[in-house]
Amino acid sequence: MKIKVGQGFDVHRFSQNRPLILGGVEIPHDRGLAGHSDADVLLHAISDAILGAIGQGDIGRHFPDTDPTYEGADSAELLRTIWGMVEQAGYHMGNLDATVITQTPKMAPHIPMIRERVAQLVKADVTDVNIKATTTERLGFTGREEGIAAMAVVCLVRE
Ligand SMILES: Nc1ccn([C@@H]2O[C@H](COP(=O)(O)O)[C@@H](O)[C@H]2O)c(=O)n1
Ligand SMILES: C[C@@]1(CO)OP(=O)(O)OP(=O)(O)OC[C@H]1O
Q1: Complex ipTM, two decimals?
Q2: Could you list the residue range(s) of the whole structural domain that residue 60 is in?
Q3: Which pLDDT tens digit goes with each residue over 101-115?
Q4: Residue 95 belongs to a domain with what CATH number?
Q5: How far is the CA of 39 from the centre of ligand 2 (A)?
Q6: How many domains would you assign to the chain?
């Protein structure tokens, strides 16, 4: 059995008049996130963790923000493409653990739906996917509600 581990981290700033998409799920909030794509900071961190594990650089290398093809892109579709690379390499999800770092909104009510969605995207059992949230106790850019950060760790397995 071969195991590969990867980590990912991403940040997007809040922006008015945009939907807030986290983990492929639209979350009710008074602001969304700015970005070239749909700015799904959680899926970007997860995507980078997966790309890291398979030694394939990062999301910007595969989907450059200078390419109009990806303007307004659905990050779930980008993750689907990345997951195809994982399957091509013969790996499946061992487990995934991710943290959304934000002062608002309260994430707890939305975590079960995000967990299901992420598990579906990486073809994993929901018990092998963990999504959590933390504030930074009003400290720093997340504490000032300027943006959202996310981090993720994945373990990929090949039998
Ligand atoms: N946006 C958030 C942030 C946190 N939570 C939940 O609250 C717990 C306590 O957060 P602290 O930052 O005060 O440690 C945390 O463990 C999460 O369960 C949340 O739902 N949404
Ligand atoms: C996803 C991409 C591509 O649309 O754009 P953004 O939404 O700006 O996201 P970021 O995490 O800054 O970098 C990856 C990009 O290439």
Answers
A1: 0.87
A2: 2-158
A3: 999 999 999 999 999
A4: 3.30.1330.50
A5: 7
A6: 1
